[in-house]
Amino acid sequence: MATPSLFQHYHGHSSVWDEMFAGTTDIRQHYQGVANFLLDTPQDELVKKEDLAKRLFMSQGITFTVYSSGEGIEKIFPFDIIPRIITSSEWDFIERGIKQRLRALNLFLRDVYHEQFILKDGVVPFDLVYSCPHYLREMQGVNVPYDIYVHIAGIDLIRDHDGTFYVLEDNLRTPSGVSYMIENREITKRIFPDLIPQNYVRPVTHYPNILYKNLMALSPRKIASPNIVLLTPGIYNSAYFEHTTLARLMGVELVEGRDLVVENHHVYMKTTSGLQQVDVIYRRVDDNFLDPLVFDPGSILGVSGILSAYRKGNVAIVNSIGNGVADDKAVYVYVPDMIRYYLNEEPILKNVPTYQLGKPDEREYVLKNINKMVVKKTNESGGYGMLMGHASSEQEIEAYIKEIMKEPRHFIAQPTISLSSAPCYIDGKIQPRRVDLRPFALCGPNGIEIVPGGLTRVALREGSLVVNSSQGGGSKDTWVLSH
Q1: Which CATH architecture has domain 353-415?
Q2: In Å, what is the CA distance from 153 to each residue of 38, 274, 318, 426?
Q3: Which of 17, 148, 247, 480 is the most buried (most CB within 10 A)?
Q4: How far is it, in rounded angstroms, from Cα 447 to Cα 378?
Q5: For this UniProt entry, which residues form the secretion signal (predicted)?
Q6: What is the pTM assigned to this prediction?
Q7: CA 440, CA 316: separation in Å to the nearest integer?
């Protein structure tokens, strides 16, 4: 049997919401089954399961890429064997909040690229939108299929000290991580085959089927078998494992820009039997590299003329081009106002309090309190370009402030939020580590579907609040209970 000391190293903080423990010793009811299993499992058996998980990740090539000193270093994605558990009532709240948010964000994108009512009514400032590098004037007046701009969204959620869920940021361009959600579940099935049915855990592996159904529905040609491709930047992209996984699970072709060509405003795929017309492109190439005739002329990742084909309605592109204006971290501040403006509803999910450094009064406040702040560039991702005030030296802060003062509009600040902690099996002990959650939402002609779960990212370093894989984070399986 496991020694009674299994949980003795689990020392939570009174100021941090713990996913497993209410107080210092009381295990929350929805974690009771997993806790009992851990206590009943011999220590050496847990070690074997952890080792099996590592070997499965290695053999299946579940990797990501960290860019250091200009070189891409491929790493196995760290995985913690203890699942993060969410109750059915918590999930219902999350699901309703994300659907509300995405309805408003889609309406905002439709509006900002057409009539711009929300700008004219003074709800969102003109200059904020026009100064956003991801606001693309080339998309002005372009009608997209079903008025859906955001087909796939990854909404990052965190939990404060009182258990309240907050939206940390919206990922509406080419959100990544869903393949790890799927693979984490498959690994958990292998190492804990009985735990999932015993705990009535809802499935996540149908995500590719929902995505494929939505992609089929977007085809401009109403044919039985539209031609769908997944456009990848190639093997050196940090999410290439995900691209190959999703293409395989959906049964669609994985292509690079050199595999496609545009003729007469239609997109074709080069094959050994000639050109085949492409109807839908699930692209994982950023806007700026998508069409060298319109955006970066030096790009070899995209396809010349693809924007013209898209504007004429001859090909569907997922996600839509120009979505970055809606997930700019400075525009994020206005999402609650968008919900009130477009839906006449109060936001279900709260934003993290956010200061825009382009506003002199807010910048002054942040600079005076920078030791208590997390400062971010508005268009960076992956944990890059971020200052953790409480963990930075005076020299680092001074250097960062100089960067802020060059272009204040491109920075926001948020108070340091604790992030909830969850149990992790580390070095043979169960210890608390900070976590966030990225559920994945799929928007199609028939509505919004959210797979019950998501990617729980873990700050594996003790005391760290940074969960990004590029910054040393890992992940764990996310269980949503059916009752």
Answers
A1: 2-Layer Sandwich (3.30)
A2: 34, 35, 11, 31
A3: 480
A4: 29
A5: none
A6: 0.93
A7: 20
Residue type, 53: A
- How long, in residues, is the chain? 483
pLDDT at 23: 77
Taking CA atoms, 24 is separated from 20, 194, 462, in Å, by 10, 28, 18
What are the tens digits of pLDDT across the range 113-137? 999 999 999 999 999 999 999 999 9
**Calpha distance 360→483 (Å, rounded):** 49
pLDDT digits (tens, 9 = 90+) for 297-319: 999 999 999 999 999 999 999 99
For residue range 241-296, list pLDDT tens digits in order: 999 999 999 999 999 999 999 999 999 999 999 999 999 999 999 999 999 999 99
Q: Which two tokens stand for residue 209?
A: 């089927």
- Per-residue tokens: 273: 């039997």
Pick the CATH number of 89-169+202-343 from 3.40.50.11290, 1.20.1730.10, 3.40.50.1440, 3.40.630.30: 3.40.50.11290
The structural domains of the chain, with segments of one domain joined by +, span 89-169+202-343, 353-415
DSSP secondary structure, 392-461, as one string: --HHHHHHHHHHHHH-GGGEEEEE-----EEEEEETTEEEEEEEEEE-EEEEETTEEEE-S--EEEE--S
Q: For residue 344, give both structure tokens.
A: 């006449």
Q: Are 205 and 179 in contact (CB under 8 A)?
A: no
Secondary structure letter of residue 18 according to DSSP: B
Fill in the amino acid letter for 136: L
